[in-house]
Amino acid sequence: MSYVAFADRDHEQEHHDPETFITKYIWSQDHKVIAIQYGLTAIFVGLIALGLSVMMRLQLGFPNEFNFINPENYYQFITMHGMIMVVYLLTALFLGGFGNYLIPLMCGSRDMVFPYLNMLSYWTYLVSVIILVASFFVDGGSTGAGWTLYPPQAISQGTPGIDGGIILMLVSLAVFIVAFTMGGLNYVTTVLQARCKGMTLMRLPLSVWGIFIATILGLLAFPALLVSAIMMLFDKTLMTSFFMPAVSSMGIDPGYSGGSPILFQHLFWFFGHPEVYIVALPAFGIVSDLISTHARKNIFGYRMMVWAIIMIGGLSFVVWAHHMYVSGMNPYFGFFFATTTLIIAVPTAIKVYNWVLTLWQGNIHLRVPMLFSIGFIFTFIHGGLTGLFLGNVTIDLPLSDTYFVVAHFHMVMGVSPVLVVLGAIYHWWPKISGKMYNETLGKWHFWMTFLGAYAIYLPMHYLGFAGVPRRYFAMGNTDFLPDSAQDLNAAITISAIFVAASQLLFFINMIWSLKSGPKSDPNPWDATTLEWHTPDHPPKHGNWGHELPEVHRWAYDYSVPGYEDDFIPQNVGADKAPAGRDRGGEH
Amino acid sequence: MTIALVFLGIILATLLGWLVKQTINTTPWEMEAVSDTAHHGPLGGTTDKSKLIALVTFLAVASSFFALILSAYALRMELGDWVPLTEPQLLWMNTVMLIVASIVFQWTRNASVNDQQSRLKPGLLITGVLTLGFVLGQFVAWQQLQNSGQLVSSNPSNAFFYFLTGAHAVHILGGLYVWARATLRVVLGTGSAEGIRRSIELCAIYWHFLLIVWLVLFGLLLST
Questions:
Q1: What is the interface pTM, i.e. ipTM, of the complex?
Q2: Which of B186, B202, B49, B181 is closest to B116 using CA atoms?
Q3: 3-state DSSP assignment of residue A527
Q4: Which CATH fold would you assign to the domain B93-224?
Q5: Residue B1 to residue B8: CA distance in whole angstroms
Q6: Chain A: closest CA distance from residue B161 (Å)
Q7: Residue range A125-157, pLDDT digits in tens
Q8: For the segment A311-340, what is each residue's pLDDT rounded down to a tens digit?
Q9: Can you identify the CATH homologous superfamily of domain A33-244+257-533?
Q10: A98, A333, A449, A532: least surrounded by Cβ within 10 Å?
């Protein structure tokens, strides 16, 4: 099938090229279909990871009750849960899913600049997911090295899955990085090259800004993971000693000498820390748009918000070693990285203040996407503040190996982005499917998820202060811990099962909506951004029919004084609407 | 990690400078008439400019990849068990081949831009032969090392040598795939002159990039 770029086509020609089911939904080059493919695949592996976390919690809450969970399994569950959630769910969903869906629609272009490459990106991603899932079934099972895959234990006797498991894990990561690079080149080029007339960079919705900067971070940071994965593969299969020191494992000398495990940690976290923001920045951007739309108020400090995203992106490359305080680093290094870490709090706090100030005196509609957005502000502040604790070397050292860290990063980069993902799905669902969902069921879903998540992670902070070590299969002889720690663990497990089960509401709601939900209005939230103003609803291949949109204003003209509606779409010109908020403008 | 940081600093500074230019002194909340300067692009199709931007972005990714390997090299080198590797003399010849390939490619590119069609075929073929020669030469250098007992697991400096040259060769092979497509179109006489010119221009940039990467790698390997 040859693809003819829309710009090269005769405008009189009807756009009906993807004709068969296969070209329309399987080997599709349409960014919207690819986005849905990415989204469904990511959610599918995400559900596997959710199941794994429930298994872990069963063991922690009720030790020795379930004899199908042994220490080996437990470590495999931990590893795969972490890796899937961070890389295969969140990264793929935000950039492959939302990036693909929103960038062309919000920029006013017909498709990604390289549709074929885009399709290739999805299928390569699918291959990486299949390799990853295959690692569950090889001899010895998947790797149990922890999601950070630290050597030497990742490839030493005693760790589960040191044969097929770790090799498939590393290969899968390498394939994922190739897929991401193909997608990332597309996102960057499309934002830079395919914006419609009038869409200057500073008129882009913050969602696009977040995705754009996150993509740049990904493009520059993922090579670090690729390098470390390849070098670890060398160590495993060719017996090199990049990372492997001289070890004697179970009385046998495997033949390594002189390698540096710390070198791996540097490479891994050089990717790993920007990765946090690869997940967070799209969430920041999307939540800004959700809050502004549902509070009927322009985002507070748009330029500040853009520059905060850029500053966070830049700073995220110089903080990686705060994950390595316990590796025995030079105190001056520790001081340097603690300082840069705390500096990141400044642009991040600016964003939080601006979200709150956007809400202030807004006309707040507590619809489902808005509930999730406000929930995000809570969990993000919570997780962010504990980040200030852990950013300091002296506080991190005693807390590093406790549940405090687990609570911190789940709050800040687990719960928070997931709340945004859910809010964003509820927000754009009418556009994607053309149907409405059940609002009440959505609200139940929010409250059960939000309160349940707090019931899981708030107590974990106390467990951490009490000194409950993380990564342990069972607590063993830890006399310094009161018996109540175990009771708290049981309570956390029950909450975790509750939250996992309440996600059913979401799936029931969405499947019901697809089958028999009412047709939605083309612009149910009265939003200004371009994707709500497509000629077809939901948008068809090529997005804009015959005429591309022309943009006349920024994305946040809500509640403009002297205008009848409380929003002015971006593609409405001055002849049809006033120029906005009496600050000069082009009157 | 200093090497990676310096590299990143350069990329981020370039990006920041560009972003400042785009965003400073704008007042997005005010309405302005739509001007054609505000409209950057071809509205969705794949164009020369977008291909160039994609290529440059990819070069940034590839540079990041190599800069990180070099960072790892510098860190690992300081540990006690490092025994410097004596590089095979053959690498000098390979380097010369790659330099000449780059020069010939530039010559072909200029011919293509100036519409001297008769020079394209010899130019492309010579470039291809030289580049293939480079890859084969690298392979022979590997054989020489293996035969002299310098295996990949013998010493970290060996492992890095194989890793660096291998990673570089893979990038060259990727370039040769694109080169082969352009060359086929020239040889068979299919495809428009315009399309071929675009292909050759982008390929030439990629060749120069890989030459620079190789010179940096080779310099580092020789000096350590």
A1: 0.92
A2: B186
A3: coil
A4: Four Helix Bundle (Hemerythrin (Met), subunit A) (1.20.120)
A5: 11
A6: 12
A7: 999 999 999 999 999 999 999 999 999 999 988
A8: 999 999 999 999 999 998 888 999 999 999
A9: Cytochrome c oxidase-like, subunit I domain (1.20.210.10)
A10: A333
